[in-house]
Amino acid sequence: MSKLMKKDFKIVENFGGLALISIMIILAGIFCMLAFGGLNLGIDYEGGAKVEIELTKSIETAGYEREFETEMTDFIKKGGYTVSDKMQKSPLSGGTGFTYEFRLNYELNGKNMGASEQSQQEFIQALNGDNKNADDQGFRGDLEEQVRAFLDSKGLIEEYDEGCVRIAVIGASSSKSLINSTILAIILALIAILVYIIIRFTISSGIAAFCGLLHDVLIMVCLTAMFQIPVNMTFIAAVITIIGYSINASIVIFDKVRECLKSAAFAQASDTEIANYAIKHSLVKILLSTLTTLIMVVALVLYSVSTIQEFIIPIIFGLVAGTFSALCLTPSLWVAYRKIGAKIKKKKA
User: Fold this and answer.
1) Tell me: the pLDDT tens digits for 180-206?
2) 22 vs 265: CA distance, rounded Å
3) Computed over its alpha carbons, how large is the radius of gyration of the chain?
C-alpha cells in the first residue's frame, strides 16, 4: 500500500474511462429491466399475501427443509395461487425454531384479484375462509393439514402446533401508497444530505456529492435488476442505509480538499491537482473502512437467513458503488463544477 501511495495519481484526468464502467453497468441494468419486465417487485409493492408457517423446531437439522419447501410450494400452486419468490426463513425468538414464509402474488387460478375491491375480498376469503363460519378455514386450513401430514410422514409430528399457519394479505391500494412513500423518503434523504454538504463545504461540493449518491442508488437498482433480487421494504432500507454510508467517503475527500484550499502550500495548485491530492491521501482510510464493513456483510450473506440476505446483498452493491464514486467520480465532478462556477463569475465580472 505504501508503494501505491507514492505514485502520482491522475484520477481526474481519467474521469471518462472510469465513468464508462458505471455507464456500462447502468446500461446492462436497463437492458435487464426491459428483458424481465422491470424490477422483481415483491408483494410489498405489488400486493399479495404472506403465508407464514411457524415450526417450534427446525426441520433443517433433520435434512427435510428443501423437501418441505418443494412440497409446500407445489401444494400452494395446486390451490391456484402463484408463488412469487422462493421460501424465506427467519428465526423465532429464543432460537426455538423458524418461520417459513411463502409470498403469493395477487392471483387466483390465473386471474388478477387486485383489480377491484370485490375480487380482493374474494381473494382474502379464499385464503382465510369465512369469518362468519368457523368451519370454513379456507386455503389456510387446507395448508395446515398438509403441513401436519408432512411432519407426520417424517416422524416430526411433535413439531406440529395447531394454528402454525398464518396468512396476511397486502392490498393493491396499500402497495401503491407504499411506493409513493418510498420515493418520497429517498428524495427527502438525498435533499437533506445535499443541504448538509452545502452548509459544511460549498455548493460545488454539495452538487458533486449529490450526483455521487444518485450514482450509487442507480447502480444498486441496476445490479438488483441484473441479479433479480426481490425488491421489498428491506431493499429500500438498504438504499437509505447506503445513502447515509456513502456520503462519509465523500466527506473524507472534501475535508482534505477544504484543507488544501486553505493551505498556502496549494495557493498555486489547480483544482485538478488538489482533487488528485485529496484522493491520494484519503485512499487508505476509505478503502480500509469499506473493506472492514464488507467483511462483516459478506459473512452475513454466507451465514444468515434469506430474509436478511435480501437486505445485505444490495448493501454490498451500494458499498462498492459508493467507494468507487467517492474516489473516482465525485472529485472529478467537483473540479467540473468549479470550472463552471469560475466561468459564470467571469461573465458577471
Assistant:
1) 787 888 888 888 888 888 888 888 888
2) 35
3) 26
Give the confidence band of 342 by pLDDT, cuts at 50, 70, 90. confident
What whole-number distance in Å separates Cα of residue 192 and Cα of residue 347?
31
Distance (Å, rounded) from C-alpha 185 to C-alpha 279?
A: 31
When pLDDT is averaged across residues 287-305 and rounded to a whole number, the result is: 85
- pLDDT for 21 equals 94
34 is written with which cell numbers?
Answer: 426491459
Q: Judging by beta carbons within 10 Å of its beta carbon (0-12, 13-18, 19+), is residue 250 exposed, middle or buried?
A: buried
CA atoms within 13 A on the CB side of 204: 18
Determine the CATH number of domain 2-41+174-348.
Answer: 1.20.1640.10
3-state secondary structure of 54: strand
Contacts of 314 (CB under 8 A, 6+ apart): 220, 223, 224, 229, 235, 238, 239, 242
Please give the pLDDT value at position 61.
64
Q: Which among 20, 332, 347, 14 is positioned nearest to 204, based on CA atoms?
A: 332
pLDDT at residue 5 in the model:
38
CA angle, 346 as apex, 341 and 349 as ends, to 5°? 125
CA separation for the pair 283, 5 (Å, rounded): 8
CA 302 to CA 188: how far, in whole Å?
33
Q: Residue 20: what residue type?
A: L
Cα separation, 84 vs 61, whole angstroms = 26
> At the topology level of CATH, where does 48-170 sit?
Alpha-Beta Plaits (3.30.70)
**26 vs 93: which has the higher pLDDT:** 26
**Residue ranges covered by each domain of the chain:** 2-41+174-348, 48-170
